Amino acid sequence: MLAELASGAWELAAMPRDRLAAATAVVERYSDVPIGIADASNIVLADVYQTRTIATLDHRHFGVLRLGDGSAPIIVP
Fold first, then answer.
1. Which SUPFAM superfamilies does this UniProt record tie to the protein (predicted)?
2. HSE-up of residue 18 (Cα within 13 Å, Cβ side)
3. How far apart are CA 25 and CA 31, in angstroms?
4. Contact 47, 25 (CB under 8 A)
5. SS in 3 state form for 40-73?
6. Which residues of 27-55 are buried (b: 16+ CB within 10 A; e: fewer)?
7. Torsion 44-75-56-13 (CA) sign
8. Can you state the angle between helices 17-29 and 37-48, rounded to 10 degrees?
9. Whether pLDDT at 5 is above 90
10. Peptide bond preceding 77: is omega within 30 degrees of 0, i.e. cis?
């Protein structure tokens, strides 16, 4: 995967302060769910990239999280 990143096959998303602040708000909103900044960042980035699809094996956490518009993410696989 690192070679693919280096070749430009994948985009490494930037997480400037405003996105980190949004991710922190997601963690706080779901304080009853043991998510961290990585899970919350994926929710924020889904909104940024205007997608509902998130690739993760963490169905337990992402099954309860909601995107900025209130919709549930589509979890794959």
1. PIN domain-like (SSF88723)
2. 1
3. 10
4. no
5. HHHHHHHHHCCCCEEECCCHHHHCCCCCCCCCCC
6. beebeeeebeeebbbbbbbbbbeeeeebe
7. negative
8. 120
9. no
10. yes
Q: Show the tokens assigned to 16.
A: 């400037």
Identify the burial level of 23 via C-beta atoms within 10 angstroms of its C-beta, where 0-12 means exposed, 13-18 middle and 19 or more buried. Answer: buried
Confidence class of residue 10 from pLDDT cuts 50, 70 and 90?
confident
Q: How confident is the model at residue 4 (pLDDT cuts 50, 70, 90)?
A: confident
Type of residue at 30: Y
Domain ranges of the chain: 15-76
pLDDT, one tens digit per residue, over 28-45 is 999 999 999 999 999 999
